[in-house]
Design goal:
The protein is of the alpha+beta class. The chain has helices spanning 3-12, 24-44, 51-54, 69-80, 106-117, 131-159, 162-186, 192-219, 231-241, 243-267, 271-303, 307-321, 354-359; strands at 48-49, 56-60, 84-88, 94-99, 125-129, 189-190.
Length: 368
């Protein structure tokens, strides 16, 4: 068995582990800092909306153009008087995007560009988008995102519980804010491809989150009938038990997306690939982070506020204070610990899973 597989097995069985829940305030602080930076980026720079959302025209020249991007920007700006974005594609053609122009003016601009670029006007392809149609596309995109979020919350509330649904919603908003903030800071154009990428990363983020939630739901089914672990400790075990799976799925998903972003978009200069791949790359990384460091710790915080969980935690701490044996007491928990410090920093090798502990018929797991 590989070292990674061995590590995953030991994490799954609770032989080793990292206390994500105990350090949740650190993760919350990091997320808040990144989110503030993303919001500042949106406020200061704003999003570079594509013509699909604000209307305009896109002119594509023939292949192997000798004109530089800077010179083409000058020609297009002089011909239209509007804001211009020019990209050189992998085949040597130029993609000239002019936002906010009327469709009736596009033919005149096309003729002027053809004259300046010294090409036949018939060889320049023009794609036009009216402002009203672009506004409809933007509204539909926001409506789609809103409907998606509502359906996700309803499904998770039914399949799990409202606390998990709320935590997943916070994680999704976290991922969306960071991704759109990066778009604002980088200056990439927001197109329908970007919206597709955002919807895709939300699905990946939910996948990792639901995997942890499913493990947590199974392990806490009869948690109040035992006095070995608090809810936070079981939540921590659930994260560790699915950690390698989350890492593997994220890395496997990021590798082809990185190829699209850095090779397809950067080397080949494919503009549409930039729109999709950047949102996928940033969103996948943010989604993997939020499912481990945000969603599950937030669920643990919400659950620990319940009277039943408070009473359970009080019984467990009282039992440990009376001299719980090292075999059954999680490593890192000592008598007199405050509730917020009760979660173990490392799960010791003698700890068994909650379900295995119940099979012995003894809540404490002691042997005769």
């Amino acid at each position: 068995m590989s070292k990674l597989g061995t590590l995953g097995a030991r994490l799954h069985h609770g032989e080793i582990g990292y206390d994500f829940i105990k350090n949740r305030k650190i993760w919350y602080g990091i997320s808040i800092l990144i989110t503030i930076m993303a919001i500042l980026g949106l406020a200061v720079r704003g999003l570079n909306m594509g013509i699909e959302f604000q209307g305009g025209a896109v002119f594509t020249t023939p292949k192997h153009m000798s004109t530089s991007v800077a010179q083409a920007e000058t020609y297009a700006h002089d011909a239209s008087g509007n804001e211009v974005i020019v990209q050189k594609l992998g085949d040597g053609s130029l993609r000239i995007q002019i936002a906010g122009i009327e469709t009736g003016k596009s033919d005149q601009i096309k003729e002027t560009l053809a004259k300046d670029l010294k090409v036949n006007p018939e060889h320049i392809n023009a794609d036009l988008v009216g402002p009203s149609w672009g506004e409809q596309i933007a509204n539909k995109a926001w409506q789609g995102l809103a409907i998606f979020m509502v359906l996700v919350v309803i499904y998770l509330a039914i399949a799990f519980e409202w606390r998990m649904a709320l935590a997943a919603l916070v994680a999704l908003i976290h991922d969306l804010t960071i991704t759109t903030g990066v778009y604002a800071l980088v200056g990439f154009e927001v197109t329908p491809g970007t919206v597709i990428g955002l919807l895709t990363i939300l699905g990946y983020s939910l996948y990792d989150t639901v995997v942890v939630f499913d493990s947590l739901k199974e392990q806490t089914k009869d948690i109040t009938k035992q006095t070995r672990w608090t809810y936070s400790e079981v939540a921590n075990r659930s994260i560790n038990g699915t950690l390698i799976r989350s890492i593997n799925t994220t890395v496997v998903a990021l590798l082809p997306v990185a190829g699209l972003l850095f090779i397809g978009g950067g080397v080949l200069g494919a503009g549409m690939l930039n729109d999709i791949s950047l949102s996928l790359f940033v969103g996948l990384a943010a989604g993997a982070y939020s499912s481990i460091f945000i969603a599950t710790p937030l669920v643990a915080d919400l659950k620990e506020r319940e009277p039943q969980m408070k009473a359970l935690k009080k019984r467990i701490l009282a039992k440990r204070a009376q001299g719980e044996s090292p075999e059954t007491e999680p490593v890192g928990v000592t008598a007199g610990d405050e509730p917020e410090d009760a979660a173990p920093a490392v799960v010791g090798p003698h700890n068994q899973s909650l379900s295995r502990g119940r099979s012995r018929g003894r809540p404490s797991g002691k042997r005769r």
